[in-house]
Amino acid sequence: MKLDELASAITELAGPIERTEQLHGQLAIHVTPQRWHEVATVLRDHPRLAFNVVTFLTAVDEEADGFEIVLSLWSARRLHRVFVKTVVPRDAARIATLSDVWRGANWCERETWEQFGITFDGHPNLVKLLLPIEFDGFPLRKDFPLMTRELKDFPGEKEPV
Fold first, then answer.
1. Given the DSSP bridges, would you call strands 80-88 and 67-75 parallel, antiparallel or unpaired?
2. Which residues does 32 contact at the CB level (< 8 Å), separation at least 6?
3. Any idea what the Cα angle at residue 106 is, between residues 33 and 3, rounded to 5°?
4. Which terminus of the chain is less hemmed in, N or C, by CB atoms within 10 Å?
5. For residue 44, which of 2, 94, 103, 123 has the smallest C-alpha distance?
6. If DSSP codes are grouped into helix, strand and coil, which group holds residue 114?
7. What is the DSSP string of 127-161?
8. CB-based contact 58:45 (threshold 8 Å)
9. What is the CB neighbour count within 10 angstroms for residue 153?
C-alpha cells in the first residue's frame, strides 16, 4: 500500500486524525491524547492495517510545548509502517498505556516513564529499568541539569552550525 493510500485507510477506519504527514518516505499520523488508545487498537485489529509489531515508543521534549510521544508500528503481514504521534502537556505528562494493545509496548513505556517522567495510565508495572532506584529526576528532559556542565563550561556550540 502506498503512503497516501495508507493515510486514507487509517483516516477511514480509525476516524478523525488531527493530521498526517510524510517524513523521509514514512507516514506519520497525529492524534489527540484522548484518542491514543482507541486509534492504536484500530491500527492493530483492522485486517487492512494489521499493525502487529511495536518497533519503538519514545518521547521528545518540546519544552514549553510539552512532550511529543512517538510510537513506531510495523505490519509484518502487510509490510507497511506508521508513526503515531501525540503531544501531552509538560505539567500533566500522562497518557493511556498501550501495553494492553501490544505487549511490546510495556518495556518502551517503562523506559519513557523513567527517562522523561511521562506516566502511562493503566500500565501493569511502571518501575525503573536502567537507573538506580534512588536516582531522582528524568535525565532526557531538557531541563535536567548535566553535572559535567555544572562543574565546567561546555566548550562546544549549543547548536550545530
1. antiparallel
2. 18, 86
3. 55
4. C
5. 103
6. helix
7. --SSS-TT--S-TTSTTSPPHHHHHS---S-SS--
8. no
9. 7
Place of cell 519513557: 112
Per-residue pLDDT tens listing for the chain (161 residues): 899 999 999 999 999 899 999 989 999 999 999 999 999 999 999 999 999 999 999 999 999 999 999 999 999 999 999 999 999 999 999 999 999 999 999 999 999 999 999 999 999 999 999 999 999 999 999 999 876 655 556 565 666 55
CA distance 74 to 44: 10
Cell 518497533 found at? 55
Q: pTM of the prediction? A: 0.89
Cell 521528545: give the residue: 60
Q: All 3 cell numbers of residue 111?
A: 523506559
* Residue 2, all three cell numbers: 502506498
